[in-house]
Design brief:
It is a single chain. The protein has 3 domains: about 1-55; about 60-240, no CATH class; about 245-315, no CATH class. The N and C termini lie far apart (about 60 Å). The protein is built from 14 helices and no strands. The chain has helices at about 5, 10-20, 25-55, 60-75, 85-105, 110-125, 135-150, 155-180, 190, 200-220, 225-235, 240-265, 275-285, 290-315. The model is unreliable at about 270-290 and about 290-315 (pLDDT under 50).
């Protein structure tokens, strides 16, 4: 296997290759290539988010994260239907991302609950028919991120333009990588195969109601950043109950332990750029140990730097 071929492997593929290799020199080589691949992906992610911030404003840097998440997934994943029909799914998914978060933030919590239910259900039906691909962790997560970092006016217009540009890039990459795969299902089969008794359809409903209810409770309580509750619920609402129960137990325990730990780090002041950032870094990588956690940290770093500046201004006063 050449270096280029090894760089094209997924994270799971690289880890399996390292695990199977018995020769120590070969194993060190595979580990080095895997680390180089991680650094290249992080550098690429940073460049994309920075480019979106420069083109569409710092308020829309989250659009770069959303497009990047979709791009990293769609280059390998599929929708389980014809490739040309998959382009329709991508267009409709991005249409929901453009409109759904803005509409829900404009409404009262009760009305926003139904908007969230409709949007998340559409994302699940369009993007998660192939359950193994775990596309929900990208599209529902993107919806929650855009809802949590809401904008209006001219910034919203730039957000729509940024999402539209990202949609075209994702379509091009998806079609290039998936056009030769044969499929029997079409776009309409996504709706024909929705049965109330099927495990997949019940997972759609469970995910939709769980995330939407979490957002509703947070909004009724007047707590900020309701998206984090939605993301936490989404991370444990898996399609297979055998996988969901152990994850819910471990995630619940980690979240309970994380609250006093984060409070202690903030209380024992050293510097917001060190204490708070280190706390966020550890917590995010516990909740999202893969590349999505690194994308969160890339997006949160400017916020921590602004927090440090505000903290020093208060202390000087």
């Amino acid at each position: 296997m050449t270096v280029y071929q090894e760089l094209q492997l997924s994270s799971a593929g690289s880890k399996n290759l390292i695990r199977r290799t018995e020769n120590k020199e070969e194993k060190r080589r595979h580990i080095l290539i895997y680390n180089v691949k991680v650094y290249l992906v992080v550098a690429f992610c940073f460049a994309v988010v920075t480019a979106f911030s420069m083109l569409f404003g710092s308020a829309n840097s989250i659009v770069g994260v959303v497009v990047l998440l979709a791009l990293l997934v769609l280059r390998q994943a599929d929708f389980g239907i014809r490739t040309s029909h998959g382009l329709i799914c991508i267009g409709l998914i991005f249409a929901v991302l453009m409109t759904g978060p803005r509409i829900s933030n404009m409404m009262a919590p009760g009305a926003a609950f139904f908007v969230n239910c409709a949007c998340i259900m559409i994302l699940m039906v369009l993007g998660c028919h192939n359950v193994i691909m775990s596309n929900h962790s990208t599209f529902v997560l993107s919806y929650l991120l855009l809802q949590g970092y809401d904008v209006s006016g001219a910034d919203y217009q730039k957000r729509v333009l940024g999402l539209f540009a990202g949609m075209l890039v994702c379509m091009a990459v998806f079609y290039k990588n998936q056009k030769l795969r044969p499929y029997r299902r079409s776009f309409l089969d996504l709706f024909r195969e929705f049965h109330i008794r099927s495990a997949r359809s019940w997972w759609y409903i469970r995910m939709t109601l769980t995330v939407s209810t979490a957002l509703l409770v947070m909004n009724l309580l007047g707590l900020p950043r309701a998206m984090w509750a939605g993301i936490a619920c989404m991370s444990v609402c898996l399609p297979f109950s055998g996988d969901m129960k152990p994850r819910a137990k471990t995630r619940g325990m980690y979240n309970i332990l994380a609250v006093p730990y984060l409070w202690r780090c903030i209380s024992c002041y050293r510097s917001p750029c060190t204490r708070i950032w280190e706390s966020w870094e550890e917590l995010v990588l516990v909740i999202l140990p893969d590349m999505r956690g690194r994308l969160f940290l890339t997006h949160l770093e400017p916020f921590i730097l602004r927090l440090e500046s505000l903290d020093w201004q208060v202390r000087l006063c």
